[in-house]
Design goal:
The protein has 17 helices and 31 strands. It is elongated. Helix 9 packs across helix 10. The longest helix is centred in the last third of the chain and has 21 residues. The chain folds into five domains: about 210 residues, P-loop containing nucleotide triphosphate hydrolases (Rossmann fold, 3-Layer(aba) Sandwich); about 80 residues, Translation factors (Elongation Factor Tu (Ef-tu), domain 3); about 60 residues, Elongation Factor G (Translational Gtpase), domain 3 (Alpha-Beta Plaits, 2-Layer Sandwich); about 120 residues, 2-Layer Sandwich (Alpha-Beta Plaits); about 110 residues, Alpha-Beta Plaits. The strands form six sheets. An eight-stranded antiparallel sheet has the order 11-10-16-7-8-15-12-13, with no helix packed on it. With about 650 residues, it is of the alpha+beta class. Helices cover about 30% and strands about 30% of the residues. The structure holds guanosine-5'-triphosphate.
Length: about 650
């Protein structure tokens, strides 16, 4: 019966029925639905004052999706979720990793003081890589639930998300979750909220999403505290396309927020961005399953299908209007910016077409991934993809494997650098001397370079103060510059550092977690480019540069990285008939060198005793042969060696 905590108490007759007729879950379900939930609501005519659009924002794992499930159950939108997985986490990778990747929406209905309210809930991802999803979701909300784990307390993403909502002028309902945990310390967390955000303890709700405690209070505060959308149903139809995905049968579907007017199935609508027109084929509300409606009105969120063939036509941030009454565009969004790039190649050359199809399909639903064709002499034809962060890259490749059964080789991730070239006739002709590169293979010759700039982030770390020393050392090793250190309570500190992006993309988060026994949390935001001394490191095999192995490094780290690279290659490249010199060079200067000894065939084996000069002559012939071979032979580095090397992430 634990599930019933926090919900309406059973009446005596219900308890009786429960025991006698064993109505079990049906009865429990009725308890959720009966009192405040409504099955049939006239969605078209619900007054604007009875609509609330809100999001749940929190640090990763603080319980957003669990709370979303409880809200849906409590209002009867879904049956009680007995499975382990969250209803709004639909992707396999979300279920497996327990993280939310795509924001989802659900319209729930609740009767309060005799009136039906439509509460549009937008579940958002918590991980830093997906902050563009959070930001998009917030632009259609009037308020948020700021959910904080009562045990973990305020974490780095709580801070980032709070300021995101605060900056958009949204009403914030602070909620402490997981109060059922033994170690929960609501007072301490309230103190942190007061210190950091000036939130009063009396305004903080205390709930357990897992056990369903305090859910009713959350819903009623949403109704009482959040403002209704400021929209006008009498004006022409104007809606913001804030998410889109691809459906096999219906083409691209657009999730829209109606800012004014209304539209119905059969209307012709146009896009402000592409100027194309379409006929509305389907309209539905997400409850959370699709619920078809004929008309959608201002203040609502709905799913619109209009036979868009390609996801590129459903541009996120676009404004849609009825073709016959044109309106101006609503403020759109900054397109998500790719932060991390990696090459993707088929593991088997014969699987190139399968991999291409899989990438095409996945990018249909993930417009944040950028795709460029890339080729490598060693790995063949492939692609260079851009991602929002490392987790985004991992999730994408996991989906490639799980949903499309393809096996891909992913090269070590890199970031985008800004290079300013010396003025030449060519730069004058092009009108700019700035180039952005994310592939070391196209890094210009050093004599052509005026300045190099690297992308920076402003990182926020929240940690118990006992780990302060090692964390500051880690940031220093990663070329970080401290900006701020604030005590958020008696034993917790918030640090802010300017850090080069390339220093954090690979393993910064893991290192931070391991040196703080998992207690420190990290979040970052883009902080532009900064002048920096960058060089291209080449790897030469017997003086022949190997493009795939070149990399861009900060000059202060060149020596170290070069040493590590040649040692690793010495380990990986199999011995061959000839001697191989592996060199790491910067601007023609050798920084590190290792030798791989050749096999030595015993050419004198067939001589039994005999004259020593014959033996020497044979050895001299062998040496000459090898010298000749060294000059003409291509060193054949097996494809697997490249794969092992490129996958290696020790070079930071
Ligand atoms: N004890 C306890 N555990 C909870 C509570 N709420 C959520 N959890 C657990 O916390 C973990 C994370 O919950 P989620 O709902 O997936 O968290 P999330 O914030 O949606 O995570 P992301 O989608 O990755 O951002 C799960 O194991 C939940 O079962 C609670 O009230 N009490």
């Amino acid at each position: 019966m634990i599930i019933l905590q926090g919900f309406r108490k059973l009446t005596k007759i219900e308890v009786f029925l429960f025991k006698r007729k064993n109505l079990g879950s049906k009865l429990i379900q009725r308890c959720f639905c009966e009192e405040n939930t409504m099955k049939d609501v006239d969605f078209e005519n619900v007054p604007i004052e009875q609509i609330r659009n809100f999001s749940i924002i929190a640090h990763v794992d603080h319980g957003k999706s669990t709370l979303a499930d409880r809200l849906l159950e409590f209002t009867g939108a879904i049956k009680q979720n007995t499975g382990q997985h969250q209803v709004l986490d639909k992707l396999q990778v979300e279920k497996e990793r327990g993280i939310t990747v795509k924001a989802q929406s659900a319209s729930i209905v609740y009767s309060f003081k005799g009136k039906p309210y439509i509460l549009n809930l937008i579940d958002t991802p918590g991980h830093v890589d997906f902050s563009s999803e959070v930001s998009r979701s917030l632009s259609v909300c009037q308020g948020v639930i700021l959910l904080v784990d009562a045990n973990d307390g305020v974490q780095a993403q709580t801070v980032a998300n709070f300021y995101l909502a605060f900056g958009k002028d949204l009403t914030i309902i602070p909620v402490l979750n997981k109060i059922d945990l033994k170690q929960a310390n609501p007072e301490r967390v309230c103190h942190q909220l007061k210190n950091l955000f000036d939130i009063e303890a009396k305004d903080v709700l205390k709930i357990s999403a897992k056990l369903g405690i305090g859910i009713k209070e959350v819903i009623e505060q949403i109704i009482e505290k959040l403002p209704h959308p400021k929209v006008d149903r009498h004006k022409p139809f104007q809606s913001l396309l804030y998410d889109s995905w691809y459906d096999k049968y219906r083409g691209a579907l657009s999730l829209i927020y109606v800012n004014s007017g209304s539209a119905k199935v059969g209307d012709s609508i146009s896009s402000c961005h592409t100027k194309k027109s379409y006929e509305i084929k389907t309209l539905s509300l997400l409850r959370p399953e699709e619920h078809s409606v004929d008309r959608i009105v201002a203040g609502q969120i709905g799913l619109l299908g209009c036979n868009m063939r390609n996801i590129k036509e459903a541009v996120v941030g676009d404004t849609l209007h009825v073709t016959s009454s044109p309106v101006g565009p609503l403020p759109g969004f900054q397109p998500p910016k790719s932060m991390v790039f990696a090459g993707i190649y088929p593991a088997n050359l014969s699987e190139h077409t399968d991999l291409r199809k899989a990438i095409e399909k996945l990018t249909l639903n993930d417009s944040a991934v950028t795709v460029d064709i890339d080729t490598s002499p060693a790995l063949g034809q492939g692609w260079r993809l851009g991602f929002l962060g490392l987790l985004h890259l991992e999730v994408f490749t996991q989906r490639l494997e799980q949903e499309h059964g393809t096996e891909a080789i992913i090269t070590a991730p890199s970031v985008t650098y800004l290079i300013k070239l010396k003025a030449t006739k060519e730069t004058v002709k092009q009108g700019t001397n700035e180039i952005f590169i994310n592939n070391p293979a196209v890094f210009p010759e050093h004599i052509r370079i005026e300045e190099t700039h690297e992308p920076m982030v402003l990182g926020t770390i929240i940690t118990p103060d006992s780990y302060l020393g090692p964390i500051m050392q880690l940031c220093q090793e990663r070329r970080g510059v401290q900006k701020q250190a604030v005590n958020i309570d008696n034993d917790r500190v918030m640090l802010q550092y300017d850090l080069p992006l390339c220093e954090i993309v690979l393993d910064f988060h893991d290192s931070l977690k391991s040196i703080s026994s998992g207690y420190a949390s990290f979040d970052y935001e883009d902080n532009g480019f900064q002048l920096s001394s960058l060089v291209r490191m080449n790897i030469l095999l017997n003086n022949v540069p190997c493009e795939e192995l070149s990399t861009i490094v900060h000059s202060s780290k060149a020596q170290l990285v070069g040493r590590q690279m040649v040692l690793k290659l010495k380990e990986l490249i199999p011995r061959q008939m000839i001697h191989i010199a592996v060199q790491a060079t910067v601007n023609g200067k050798v920084l590190a060198r290792e030798n791989i000894k050749p096999y030595r065939k015993d050419v004198t084996a067939k001589l039994y005793g005999g004259d020593v000069t014959r033996r020497m002559k044979l050895l001299a012939q062998q040496a000459a042969g090898k010298k000749k071979m060294k000059m003409v032979a291509n060193i054949s580095v097996p494809r697997n060696t490249f794969i092992d090397f490129l996958k290696n992430d020790d070079f930071k």
